[in-house]
Design brief:
Elements (H helix, E strand, L loop, with lengths): L3 H11 L14 E5 L6 E4 L13 E4 L5 E3 L10 H10 L5 E4 L3 H7 L4 E2 L5 H7 L3 E4 L7 H11 L4 E4 L3 E6 L2 H24 L12
Parallel strand pairs: 7-8
Antiparallel strand pairs: 1-2, 1-5, 2-3, 3-4, 5-9, 6-7, 8-9
Length: 205
C-alpha cells in the first residue's frame, strides 16, 4: 500500500517545481491515483521541496482517510480538492497545483488564460484555461468550484492563488503546468504590446 513507484515519480516532479518557478518553499501540492486500488498518493502538508523524500507522500482513500504516512504529518491542506477532481473524472491520474507567478498576475484581471499562443501550448493545454474568483483554500467551496471549472479542460486558475492542472499521468500534469507557465509569460508580454495574435483552435486547425 506504499506505492513506491508513484512516490518516486511524484518526488521527481516536486524537486523540479522550484527550479521551474512553479512553487517555492512548501507551497503547492501534487497527487496521483493508483489505478488498481483507486487510492490517492499526495504530498504531505508543509514539507519544503528541498528536503522532501519519498516518505513525505501520504496515501489516502477516496474518502480522505489516511492509509499510510511513513514520514508522519498530515496530507496536503487541499486534499479535498484533489479528491473531488478524482471523483468527478475517472480518467484523471494526477493533479498538480502550483503558484506560477505570471499566471497569478494574469488571473487578477483576466477571466481566462489564453492557450492558443504557440503550437506547443495549444497541443498541451487544448483550450483557454478558465479563471474563477478567489475562494478560500482547503474549503469545500474550493473543491466544488475547482471541479466545476476544470470540467472539459486540462486545468483552471483560482484568481490570486494559482492553477490546478490534471493529467492522465504524473508527467502529463507536469508538462501541462510547464506549458501554462510559458503561455502565461508569452500572453503577458503580448498584451503589453497590443492585441495578441492567436493560432487557430485545435478544432479548426
Amino acid at each position: 500500500m506504499d506505492y513506491p513507484g508513484i512516490r518516486k515519480e511524484l518526488l521527481a516532479v516536486c524537486r523540479q517545481l522550484p527550479a521551474n518557478n512553479l512553487a517555492t518553499g512548501s507551497t503547492g501540492n501534487i497527487s496521483a491515483r493508483d489505478n488498481e486500488s483507486g487510492n490517492i498518493v499526495i504530498k504531505r502538508s508543509s514539507v519544503p521541496y528541498d528536503v522532501m523524500t519519498e516518505e513525505d507522500f501520504i496515501v489516502v482513500d477516496m474518502d480522505g482517510k489516511v492509509l499510510s504516512a511513513p514520514g508522519g504529518g498530515k496530507p496536503s491542506f487541499e486534499t479535498p480538492t484533489h479528491l473531488a477532481l478524482y471523483q468527478a473524472d475517472p480518467e484523471i491520474r494526477s493533479v498538480l497545483h502550483t503558484h506560477i507567478p505570471m499566471t497569478i498576475v494574469l488571473s487578477a484581471s483576466r477571466d481566462h488564460i489564453e492557450s492558443n499562443l504557440t503550437p506547443t501550448s495549444r497541443r498541451l493545454l487544448k483550450r483557454p484555461l478558465p479563471v474563477i474568483p478567489f475562494v478560500e483554500n482547503g474549503t469545500e467551496e474550493m473543491a466544488v468550484r475547482v471541479t466545476e471549472a476544470i470540467r472539459g479542460n486540462v486545468g483552471m486558475v483560482i484568481r490570486n492563488h494559482g492553477p490546478f492542472v490534471i493529467g492522465d499521468s504524473i508527467q502529463t500534469a507536469f508538462e501541462r503546468t510547464i506549458a501554462l507557465r510559458d503561455a502565461s509569460e508569452l500572453y503577458y508580454h503580448m498584451i503589453l504590446i497590443g492585441k495578441p495574435s492567436l493560432v487557430p483552435p485545435l478544432e479548426q486547425a
